[in-house]
Amino acid sequence: MPTLTIDNQQVTVPDGTTVLEAAEQLGIVIPHFCYHKALGAVGACRMCAVTVVEGTFKGLKMSCLVKAEEGMVVTTDDQQSVEFRARVSEWLMLNHPHDCPVCDEGGECQLQEMTIASGHGLRRYTGKKRTYNNQQLGPFIAQEMNRCIQCYRCVRTYKDYCGGKDFGVMGSRNRVFFGRFKDGTLESDFSGNIVDACPTGVFTDKTYRFKSRYWDLQEAPSICPHCSLGCSTVPGGRYGELQRVRSSVNEKVNGFFICDRGRFGSSYVNHPERPRQATRGSWKLTVDEALQQLDVKARELINQHGPESVLLLGSNRASLETNWLLQRWAEEIGCRAPLLSAHLPRHQAAQVAAFDLADRLCSLEKVRQSDLVVAIGADPLAEAPMLGVALRQAVRSGGKVKVFDPRPVELPCDFEKQTVSPTELLDLLDGTSVESKQLVDLLRGAERPVLVAGGLMLGAGGMLRLKKIAAAASNDQRNCLVHPLLGGANSFGAALLSLPEQDDLLTRLESERIKMLVCVETDPLLEAPDNERFAKALSLLEELVVLDYLPTPLSVHANLFIPTTAPVESEGTFINNEGRQQLFAPVIKPRLPISVTGEGNHPPREFIDVAPGSDPIPSWQLFQQLLGEATDLPTLREKMKTAVPRLIDFETLQPGGVSCRVAHVDERCIYTDEIPAAPEESLQLVVTPARYGSDLLSRYSAKLQPRFTEACVQLHPQDAAARGLQDGAKVVLDTVEGPFNLTLKCNDKMAIGCALVENGPKFQQLVPGGKLSFCKVHAGMSHG
Amino acid sequence: MSTPQLLFKNRRPGETVFMEAYKATGGYSALEKALTKSSPDEIRNLVKESGLRGRGGAGFPTGVKWTFFPSDAPGPKYLVCNCDEMEPGTYKDGVLLAADPHQLVEGMILSAYALQTDVGYIFIRYAYERQAEYLRKAVEEAKAAGYIGKNILGSGFDFELLVHGSAGRYILGEETALLNGLEGQRPNPRMKPPFPATRGLFGRPTTVNNVETIANIPHIVNGGALWFRDLALTPGSSGTKLYGLSGHLNVTECFELPVGIPLREIVENYGGGMRGGRKFKACLPGGASTPYLTAEHMDVALDFDSLEKVDSRYGTAGVTAFDDQTCMVAATLNLIQFFARESCGWCSPCRDGLTMMRWLLETIENGEGTPEHLEMLKDQLKNISGNSFCALAEGAMGPVAGLLMHFEQEIVDHIEKGCCPFRD
Amino acid sequence: MAQEEKIDSVGLLDENGLAYFIAHAGELEHPRELVIDVLRAIQKNHGWVPDEGVELTATILGLEPIDVEEVATFYDKIFRRPVGRYPIHICDSICCWSNGGEELAELFQQKLGIAFGQTTEDGLFTLLPSCCLGVCGQAPAVMIHQRHYGPLSADDVDELIERLRREASE
Ligand SMILES: Cc1cc2nc3c(=O)[nH]c(=O)nc-3n(C[C@H](O)[C@H](O)[C@H](O)COP(=O)(O)O)c2cc1C
Ligand code: SF4
Ligand code: FES
Predict the structure, then answer these.
(1) Which positions of C make up the binding site for [2Fe-2S] cluster?
(2) Bigger pLDDT: A600 or B59?
(3) Residue A243, helix vs strand vs coil
(4) pLDDT for B350-399, tens place per residue?
(5) Does residue B404 form part of some domain?
(6) Residue A50 C-beta-side C-alpha neighbours within 13 Å
(7) Which of A291, A454, B46, B416 has the fewest CB atoms in 10 Å of its CB?
(8) pTM of the model
(9) Which residues of chain C lie closer than 8 angstroms to B320, CB-CB?
(10) What is the ipTM for the molecules in this complex?
(11) Of B305, B323, B341, at which residue does a domain stop?
(12) Distance from CA of A148 to the nearest CA of B (A)
């Protein structure tokens, strides 16, 4: 722990800290470009020069490369350093166009900042500037190469850090070019990160181009709602429109980057059909009226038909606050405790994570640092994209990744794959089979082992089995940690709040005792298994109430609809897959975007005292109203903490930052799994989330449409041949939920004996995360 | 000729010596002697005692460099010979290989034995395809003779030697860029540390040496350290050196002469004086990256230490002489043009600083310069020097420093006349 | 496992060359070290390296095209654009410059009627400026297909061009 002096201030830092990082701790920002905390120091830009007055190597040095030494004395503001940094700015500005006023990066440009910081104000060079032709890089990223200052951050982000394979640096001298081999869409699922990494306006968010100047944006720290990882983001909006999302920093979770689903998947907020008005049938209501009707009707039904007659349904899209208040309201009106998920198997898996696995859960940071990650029943790029990037970092620092899965899993790093069917996965985890013992041995041999548990594939029973494996692989020195993947942004939170549940939504609905169903930010038609049965069951209801911010099919069926706010329009908490309580702050107010109300006119020509479409209210506020208590969030959180002691430090949490995990708890261990016998000639059915558009938010995001894939059923070529089927054939997939007409795709990376379908915008009928089930695939078209 | 000829012993105009002729003049005797009688340590000590300094330009003592090498580290280790030789004014390695390729092959095997490396690469520039072919033939011959392969001469030492062609670009001469190039990566220089000795080619311990450096090893093994030291004319120096003459001299050939020979002898005796009876004005003493010497340096001894004392460098001893009709601004512009074009594009002082420098020199040379341009030139020199990622931009500052040191008046003349005084 | 997919050389490498590189890449621990060798072989066969050549190199060595392109575009002696049958590299570094290199370059441009970077209409000659060719004692010099010519006088230039024209028509 050397102590050094920088600009007359002393600081003590851990061994290996660079002078640049040490200065940062003192609040001294040494200008830099090529250094980036996640990407490391490469010493290319030479912007970070300081003068080492005392130290092994004295003189002008690059602070990103020089390690702090005991007794070192450094100055950052001496004449030599200041002059040199001004010269570096001059060099970087030689070719830079003076187009700041029209540049997309204007106002959030590191080059602007550093040029000003370095004191280079006047251009002395009057020679020719070098110019480039730009490439067409697809729907997400715009390129303007003339603005490049060659910090190499884009390629280090895209290729080195995120593992993209179609982007690089070409040419040399003062003509290096960053781009693709040929024009075309950037293929990586993490392409958007080059927008954040580029310090100037070379790579910008094409979907946000010409919409706002940075300083006009409303921004706030938020949590990505697109999967259970809960990456930190900063969404930005203006005039009622969510315009972009950029990544934020949480070193425990995403680190510095996010995936394209998270970045480009938020335009659901601006969906043209988004319901913004409370309605009963075709009648428009105020939200107050609607709440009144809900309250009266619910109490009436309970009076008449008993506590069973009203069923409240929370969700993993809804915040922790909303789900908790929903439970409180149930108590208040005297109905049974709400279900907090429309999808029981998913919910049960999340409960195992939230209870039984709680003491061995680990963050993505721990995954990045692991020397052996074994992923079981997990397809990171589909279920939790940034996990893929985390795995890459494990591999880059010498770790190994092993995947057991029936799907053709791809990862942005080297890994070993064992293709096994879902039932074989359960055998692998039974603790007694040869494979199982080998797995334990493998984990035992590692120093920092992590098991990634695919909650959708494994289910609660599989997760409990995996827990035993983790226990067997742990010893006194270290735990074998588990990183679970769950269904949605707040799956953990919903699981944490609920009691073990054994009956599901459908069973209850079909019991015919339910008169009223209240769905809070969930649509079982899209999110629960067997939506056909659900649709039928709906007809048994007297009253269907939907509270949501998405134009889901269910809202059309609703007798009473109440609009709520999207996460970016409200404050709230999600608990991510490893139990981290993360707060998001409101970014914009709910209202119809001015681009819609103004019909293109700017400023809008009609003046009224409320913004059109501003009815939606955060769902937690709706339930507070129903409960007749209107407290602020901190007070609410204090109450929640008393009721749910696992929410440690909950009342003090703030949006942004690393946040903290929920407390551990005694295990519950109540679920068992049975492996049903396979019908003859059947295949195991595997339903996986599509990379884009499986979660409802990205499905309703127009920006992501170019990434939506066509529906198909995938078989191993051997299984196809056994059925006399050829690649591309029209086939029927026969499942317990009915037959589906699909195109066949042969894929030799599939497990034999399995059929794979992707749940996404083009195929919504089957939902991932169900119980083990079987299907048949045969030629022809089904009828009906 | 009074200088003993080691490296050019077998040189005949237009001829290339191969195995038979090479052996006839004692070729491979050093190898046979060393592999049967000496331990690797003994050879390394011998090289250290010989005082041999790297012939690739930086002049680092070879024996010292070799002592850093982890010869006993398990796993593959590499010896790489640097025959990029793309610094303007430097062509000695090309001449040596065209005359006598087996010298390098024998030197490589000997050095590999001393360092205990399993694989050797000779990295050779695109323009030396002829030499590359000679080398490939020599390697085949050496293999056939049992000098390369398994259990060489019964010593238990195994060695494989490969010739790797490049495709242009001066930066590949920088040893870490060269390693990237060999690996098929983009040939940007690497960060040091780690040094190649610990993490070099394919992440393994590696030593990089110049052709001439390695070609000297058999002679040192044969003649001994003391003998080798005595070949030089100045105290502290050792060996002979290949001097590639170029520019406005009457004779522009490559000579093997002692280290420490005075500049005057090169210019007047070997170079045959300036062409057309003109006067000597300046020279680059050791390649494009070395600061100019002028007529007042005629009696300076050409060796590493003496040249440093006059703020220049021995470099590769490629002497490029300029007569009194040469515009030194234009000459420097030409040199900077080279370095700017050969920049790898990694760091700002080189990629953009040299561009700025080129523009400044161009502006002055074109008669559009002002006193501010001269000041700018000075501040660019000051700020680029010592601050680039690798030594390329550092080297580029050599001639600029020389220009400002000895010929500032010439710059002022350009500015005052509004044109180049050497052009009509 | 499965049979290696057959690689189509798209006419850029002959059968033997292709087979050699595929076999050699298979033996090496780091096949990537062959990048320059494959690119040079393609260039030797085809005169320059078209996009397909970059892709072919990538396929042979198990790389992505961009990995090859990153390297190919670094080197000035790998041509990623068509050149004439005789690319003439004219040295413009200090030794040749001090011995009339600029005049020589001028002469070539006049005689061939093209500027640097251009190719004569008959597709025979391309003029390219080059850094030091390593024959500083024979300045001013040029290099054609890795052969050096120097020192060159005005007459030599005429003769050289004539000879290459003759050679091409044979
Ligand atoms: C830009 C640059 C170009 C270089 N070119 C060469 C070269 O062509 N040949 C060479 O032997 N060394 C060259 N060097 C020096 C090498 O980096 C390295 O120091 C040398 O090969 C070591 O060998 P030696 O110790 O035997 O001289 C160059 C260095 C730089 C910075
Ligand atoms: S000084 Fe910098 S840009 Fe120049 S060659 Fe070295 S690393 Fe590349
Ligand atoms: S930040 Fe240190 S050199 Fe770029």
Answers:
(1) 91, 96, 132, 136
(2) B59
(3) strand
(4) 999 999 999 999 999 999 999 999 999 999 999 999 999 999 999 999 99
(5) yes
(6) 31
(7) B416
(8) 0.95
(9) 94-95, 98, 136
(10) 0.95
(11) B323
(12) 12
| Predicted pLDDT at A501 | 77
d(CA B88, CA C91): 10
Residues B191 and B245 in one domain: no
Q: Does residue A754 lie in a domain region? A: yes
Q: Count the alpha carbons within 13 Å of C74 in the hemisphere toward its beta carbon.
A: 30
Domain C15-74 has CATH 1.10.10: yes
Residues B124 and B266 in one domain: no
pLDDT for residue A784: 44
Residue entry with tokens 């990650």: A373
What separation in Å is there between the alpha carbon of B82 and the centre of ligand 1? 7
Instruction: Tell which of B279, B298, B323 closes a domain.
Output: B323
Domain-embedded: residue A187? no
Instruction: Say if B422 falls within a structural domain.
Output: no
φ, ψ of residue A619 to 5 degrees: the values are -60, -35
Beta strand A59-62 pairing with A49-54: antiparallel
Range B325-354 average pLDDT: 98
How far, in whole angstroms, is CA A567 from its chain's centroid?
13
**Mean pLDDT, chain A, whole residue set:** 94
| CA A64 from centre of chain | 31
- Residue B387 to residue A175, Cβ atoms within 8 A: no
What mean pLDDT is reported for chain B?
Answer: 97
- Tell me the chain C residues in contact with residue B167 when contact means C-beta distances shorter than 8 Å: 36, 39-40, 75-78
In a domain? residue B6: no
pLDDT, averaged in runs of 10, over chain C (170 residues): 66 94 96 98 96 97 98 97 97 97 97 97 97 96 96 96 94
Q: Could you tell me which CATH number the domain at C86-169 has?
A: 3.40.30.10
Q: Which of A63, A92, A121 is the last residue of a domain?
A: A92
**Pair type for strands A730-735 and A774-779:** antiparallel
CATH of the domain at A741: 2.40.40.20
Burial class from Cβ neighbours inside 10 Å (0-12, 13-18, 19+) for residue B400 reads buried
pLDDT digits (tens, 9 = 90+) for A531-557: 899 999 999 999 999 999 999 999 989
Counting from 1 in the atom list of ligand 2, the atom nearest the Cα of B344 is 8
Residue B185 CA to chain centroid, in angstroms?
23
> What integer is the mean pLDDT of B17-43?
96
Which sign does the torsion angle of CA C130, C136, C141, C143 carry? negative
Do B368 and B315 reside in the same domain of the chain?
no
The whole-angstrom distance between A60's CA and the closest CA on chain B is 8
Provide the residue range defining the domain that includes A27. Answer: 3-92
